[in-house]
Every structure is written in C-alpha cells, then in structure tokens.
Specification:
By secondary structure, the protein is α+β, with helices and mostly antiparallel strands. It is built from 25 helices and 20 strands. The strands form 5 sheets. It has an 8-stranded mixed β-sheet with strand order 13-7-6-10-11-12-3-18, sandwiched between helices. The radius of gyration is 29 Å and the shape is globular. It catalyses: (R)-carnitine + hexadecanoyl-CoA = O-hexadecanoyl-(R)-carnitine + CoA.
Length: 760
C-alpha cells in the first residue's frame, strides 16, 4: 500500500557489504513538520495559560505597574511604605542593582495582589444571581452595583478566561428542596397519595436527610462541582443499555437549503469547518458563551472533550477517552472503514483537497471484509456484549490497530448512500425519515461511541449524531451552528457545486482499515434493530407564528410553549404527568443541567379551567400565573436551587453509606413521561437570519425517555417559526407521535393574539 510505504521514515537491509540504509526524505519532512505543528500548539497553550492566569488584567499591565513604581521612586517617594528597603536588605547586589531589583520584585508582588483582588471581585460579581429574579424596570441598588461586571469584562477574554472565576454550585438547604419537591408533585397525586408522600418527605428531612446533607456539603467544599462527576458516571457511563436512541441525540441541516448537491463537496466543507472550529477551541479563540442579552459568561468546560474523544465500553462502567490531538478522521462508506488524513506537512488540507479524498472513497468499489459492514452495531447495542467482544477480539493485532484509528480520530463521518431532507411528494414523511436516520440510521452505519458523528447524505444533506455523556445539547448546537454557517457563508462552493481551492493530486489514498472479524461479533444488531424499529419520530415545523407574536403578550416564549405542551398532553392522555425540561447550570463551574418540573399547580389549574370551558376572563390571569411560575422555576434551576440534582446526589451518598431511603428511592423511580428540551439558536450570530430566512435550522431531537412517554425537542427559529421534534415508541399503544403533534399544533395556536387574550 502506498500510504504504508510513505509512513516509513527509513528502511535498512543487511547485505554482505554491510548495512544498506535507505532514508525517505519525504517521510522525514512530514515528521519534522508535524513536530513543528505540535510545538506551535504547546507554545500557544503556554501563552494562553499566562493570559488566562492574569485575567481580567493583561500580561502587559505588569509593565505599567513597574513603570509607575519606578516613576514614583524617581520623584523620591516610597510607594511601598518601606517594603522596597526591606527587600534590598536581602539582595546580595550593588546599591544600584539592589534598588532596581527590589523595585521589580515589589512591582511584581503588587501586580499579583491587584490581579487577585480583581479576580476576587469578578468571582463575587459572578456569584450574584438575584438580578435574574428582578422585574423589568425595578432594579435594586445591589444589582446596579453588580453592573460593574461590564467593566471587568471589557477586555477580550479567551474561551476559558472565566473558568476559575465562576462560582461553585451551591448545595441547597434540604428543607427548601423537599418543599419544592412536594409542590411539584401536588398536581400529580390524589389527596391520600400526597399525604403519604408528605409524611415520607418530612421523615426523610428530619432524620436521614440531614446526615446525607452533611456529606454532600463536605463534597461541595472539596470538589469543583458536587453534581457533575456523579451525573456523568451514574446517569451516562454506568448505564448498561444501548446508548443509541436512549442517550444519543441528533442535529439537522438547514430546512429549506442544501448548499450543494455534491456529496463529496459537502463533506469537504463540513470537515473543514469542524476542524476550523477545533482550531479555535485549541487556541481558545472562541468567545465565551454568555447568557443571552448579558455579559454573564457560561462555563466552557464541555468544549475540552469535543474532539478526539470516544466512549469505550466496560463491564461495570464505560470510560471517556480523550486525546490531545488527532490529524485524521474516520470515514464509513458502504460497509468499509477508512482513515482520512486531514493534515499534510503540518497544514490543514483545503476543502477542495478533502473533497478530492472523499471522492476517492466514494469511487472505491472494493467490497467490505467479512463482518466489517455490520461492525458499528456493537456501539448501538447493550454495553456488556460490546465490552466482552472488545476484550476478546479487539485488544491486539490488526483489529486493535483499526479500532484505534476510529477511536482516536477527530470525529466520525458516514457517507450515507440514501437521500434525505424535506423533499418530494411527501415532505412531512421525509422529514420524519430524516430524523430517524440521524437518530439511529441502519444501526450499524454510525459509530455511536464517538463524541459526535457527522452524516453526509447522497443528495448533499447533512446532520450529526452526538454521544451525550461528555456534553449537553447547547454545546453541540454551538459547534453545529458554526459548522453550517461556515460551510454556507464563508467557505462556499463553485458554480458547479464543488469546494473552492486547488488540489494536490499527489496526496496518498485514504487508508482502508483492515479487520479480522469472527461471525459472532455482530450479536448486537438484533437488539439495536428492534430498538430502532420501535421508535416513532415526527418533525413538525409550526409556521403560524413564532416568538415575535408571543413576546407581544409579554410572556416568555419558553413558558408559552411549555404550558402548551401541558395542555397537549392533557388532551392526549386525559391527565398530567411528571414533566422534564432541561435547564443549564453553566453559570457555575463545570455545571451541566438541572430539571425544570414544568407541570406545576399553576399550569394544571390553567389547563383544567380551559378544558372545563371557563370564560376567557378567568383563564387569562391563570395563564399569567402559570407563565410567571414557570419562569421562576427556570430561574431557580439555573441558579442552583433546583430539585432533582440535589436529590440525586443525596441518593448517591446514601448508596455509598449503605443506607436505604424510601423517600429517595421513590423519587428517583418516578418516570418522566414527558421529557422536553429547547435547542438554542443563533448563539454565535455568524449570519443575519432576517436577511437569509431560507437558512433556518430544523434543530434536533432525541428518543423518548419513558417507554410510555414522549420526547419533545423544540427550537424557536426567528420571529415566525417553531420547529418541534416528537418521539415515542410504537410498542406503547397510548403514545403516537403524529397524534401528539396535532394536539401541540392545536394547543400552541392562539385564535387571537392582537391584544392580550389568552385562548388556545
């Protein structure tokens, strides 16, 4: 193989005349340039570490302090109040040298002290969250002082500049958590059930709860975040069921636009855009994500494991493996796996060169090796069989080398041989098939263990499937938004749909991975296929109105939609259910998510009044109360005063201590029959959506959390559109995604929005 020969820097043979040494100068040059690139990255990391370490000051501010001190001393004044003289006494130098060095030492100490003071002030300001609960136009004096945060945020920060200044997630008082929990379940329980639960909760609070709380507070003092490590391990990595459908989620392409119909070209630009994003992450050139409309930064820790990361199976728990760098991507096409090098001589290949390499893969007519085409099903099925197969057949030899090529790749690419998107005579049905394809594909043509996998379809449509343990959807949405915008608006295509740029036709062929796979390896396909066939997905673009008309009511769009979902579920199932809405806790260091329990006393009162035919004058104030209550619940979740993460951690502590809590056991066994999430849109504002309305995104979705429930993802696009992704299981006769979507459409639609009536 040509690429194998080029990978060898030198060869030697022993002859009767001696050793014949043959050097490959091209290979040595590749090694040299790769080393240069590696050292540049090391220097960049050192530079960024210095800049982050002194933020919100700058390294150049040290020189300013030194000059100021020396100028003051020149005017025969002692700014150190005697400290410079004391430093001089310990320096074995001449008098003039002592003065200069002692001034530099004092200036440096003063500079470091000022930095610590600024960082303390920044952390203090970032720890204040009461601004979130104040009404518009009624700002307290404390919040007015808090706006000084803008001054400390005026310098251009790096991606991780705020990390050490973000506050730690606080442990809520157990009394508050129990009280909020009882409020959240009141609309779901009968009077006798609620009385029993209240007794359980009170007994827990007064007895075992306080003991568990002390251990949790001890962890909070020691750990950066008292939730995140346990959440990652016990919710994600220790799960032994399939991660396909149950954990992984998907993101879609533009709804109306396909930038090019050429599959290889779309892959070329997409891969380039992703690698440009990785470069920005490595150099920390991305701006820190902020709370919309404010200067408040969000934790960026999830970006660290975005690329070069894979989830590897284990007997008891999986492990997330991350590598510092990777110069290749893994590609799957028609049952074959390839390693595609994306760097040459230390430079990133151009989009046109990557397109050229992808086209070579598409033109390769070689058949899959035995068992190769269905190999990816191992990542789609149960984790235990995959762990056993990995140890037995992939721990050495060619299988290990090929598996390493996939797992160490920057990310995974599938060149799908199907066409997808909203097209043809059945656009709605095709959107549903598009969603299912991204969620699970054929169960063997994705690598579900990779941090994310990109899918490029035959007609140029694209999408992604993301593994959930390393990060949450907003982080992946940020990546995907950058990728789509860079692809369409910055890189672009030629008139005939190909990538721009020149091609070096001496590039080595993409490397075909080699396997020796026994027939019993693909035991997971049947399990994965049954799970995939059971999923019912429906994508619904709601075009009647969007957040523009909702805001005219002075109502939060998210609260509006969540109340609509409560009404839809009530009409669908004739009652209420425990509802999960994902909120972020990235105001805190290493924060991830918290649950907003959207089914509240106020929302259920509004739904009942509406369904009982009450007059608008009675429903309107109930709707206001329900929306205000939902906004308050969301704010509490964001600021660390949620319910479920605290109770989850108390449960983990109880397991470590070997004690049983009937209250915690019952709380954590309650099913989430309505699991919802909002996908953020335009986090980066790389293009103007108003002037380019055809480039709206469809967002993404996920599978149902409960076997008899719904998974609902929605994205509020622009001012006039809301996209819904609804999933359920065919095996439950009570849940039908199409039916639930029709209820959502009915319930979200308002017959009159011109003034202030609320009538669904």
């Amino acid at each position: 193989m040509a690429e194998a020969h080029q990978a060898v820097a030198f060869q030697f043979t022993i002859t009767p005349e001696g050793i014949d040494l043959q050097l490959s100068y091209q290979a040595l040059n590749q090694i040299y340039l790769s080393g240069v690139r590696s050292w540049k990255k090391r220097v960049s990391r050192m530079r960024n570490s210095l800049i982050k370490g002194v933020y919100p000051a700058s390294p150049s501010s040290w020189l300013f302090v030194v000059i100021a001190i020396l100028a003051t001393m020149y005017m025969r004044s002692d700014p150190s109040m005697g400290l410079i003289t004391k430093i001089q006494q310990h320096l074995p130098l001449s008098s003039q040298g002592q003065t200069m060095v002692s001034a530099l030492v004092f200036s440096t100490l003063l500079w470091l002290s000022l930095i610590l003071a600024l960082r303390f002030c920044l952390k203090l300001l970032l720890s204040y969250h009461q601004w979130m609960f104040e009404q518009h136009g009624r700002v307290s004096n404390v919040t007015k002082v808090w706006t000084l945060l803008r001054l400390l945020s005026s310098r251009k920060p790096l991606l991780y500049s705020y990390q050490t200044s973000l506050p730690h997630l606080p442990v809520p008082p157990i009394k508050d958590t129990v009280s909020r929990y009882l409020q959240s379940v009141r609309p779901l329980l009968t009077d006798p059930e609620y009385k029993r639960m209240t007794e359980l909760a009170n007994h827990f609070e007064l007895n075992l709860g306080n003991r568990l709380q002390r251990y949790l507070k001890l962890k909070a003092l020691w750990a950066t975040n008292y939730v995140s490590d346990w959440w990652e391990e016990y919710i994600y990595l220790r799960s032994r069921g399939p991660i396909m459908v149950n954990s992984n989620y998907y993101g879609m392409d533009f709804l109306y636009v396909t930038p090019t119909p050429v599959q290889a070209a779309r892959a070329g630009n997409t891969i380039t855009a992703l690698l440009l994003y990785r470069r920005k992450v490595n150099r920390e050139e991305l701006k820190p994500t902020r709370v919309p409309g404010t200067v408040i930064p969000l934790c960026a820790a999830q970006c660290e494991r975005m690329f070069n990361t894979t989830r590897t199976p284990g007997d008891q728990t999986d492990v997330l493996q991350h590598w510092q760098d990777s110069e290749f991507v893994a590609v799957y096409h028609k049952g074959r796996y390839f390693r595609l090098w994306v760097y040459r001589a230390g430079r990133l290949l151009s989009p046109r060169e990557i397109e050229y390499q992808i086209q070579r893969i598409l033109d390769d007519l070689s058949p899959p090796q035995p068992g190769e085409d269905k190999l990816g099903a191992l990542t789609a099925g149960d984790r235990m069989p995959w762990s056993r197969m990995r140890k037995q057949y992939f721990s050495s030899g060619i299988n290990k080398r090929s598996l390493d090529a996939i797992e160490r790749a920057a990310f995974f690419i599938t060149l799908d041989d199907e066409e997808q998107g909203m097209r043809g005579e059945d656009p709605a049905g095709n959107l549903d098939r598009y969603a299912k394809s991204l969620l699970h594909g054929k169960c063997y043509d994705r690598w579900f263990d990779k941090s994310f996998s990109i899918v490029i379809y035959k007609n140029g449509k694209s999408g992604l499937n993301a593994e959930h343990s390393w990060a949450d959807a907003p982080t992946v949405a940020h990546l995907w938004e950058y990728t789509l915008a860079t692809d369409a608006f910055q890189l672009g295509y030629t008139e005939d749909g190909h990538c721009k740029g020149d091609v070096d036709r001496t590039l080595p062929m993409p490397q075909r991975l080699v396997w020796d796979i026994p027939s019993e390896v693909c035991i997971s396909l049947a399990v994965a296929q049954a799970l995939a066939d059971d999923v019912d997905c429906h994508v619904f673009p709601f075009r009647e109105f969007g957040k523009g008309r909702i805001k005219k009511l002075r109502v939060s769009p998210d609260a509006f939609i969540q109340i609509g979902l409560q009404l839809a579920y009530y009409r669908d199932r004739g009652g209420f259910c425990l509802t999960y809405e994902a909120s972020m806790t990235r105001l805190f260091r290493e924060g991830r998510t918290e649950t907003v329990r959207s089914c509240s006393n106020e929302s259920s009162a509004f739904v009942k009044a509406l369904e009982n035919g009450e007059a608008e004058e009675q429903c309107r104030p109930l709707f206001r109360l329900a929306s205000e209550r939902h906004q308050n619940l969301y704010r509490l979740a964001m600021t660390g005063a949620g319910i479920d993460r605290h109770l989850f951690c108390l449960y983990v502590v109880s397991k470590y201590l070997g004690v049983e809590s009937p209250f915690l056991k019952e709380v954590l066994s309650e099913p989430w029959r309505l699991s919802t999430s909002q996908t953020p849109v335009q986090q980066m504002e790389l293009f103007d959506l108003k002037n380019n309305p055809e480039f709206i995104s469809l967002g993404g979705g996920f599978g149902p959390v409960a076997d008899d429930g719904y998974g609902v993802s929605y994205i509020i696009v622009g001012e006039d559109m809301i996209n819904f992704h609804v999933s359920s299981k065919h095996s439950c006769s009570q849940t039908v995604s199409n039916t639930f979507v029709s209820f959502i459409s009915q319930c979200v639609y308002m017959h009159s929005l011109k003034s202030d009536p609320v009538r669904f």
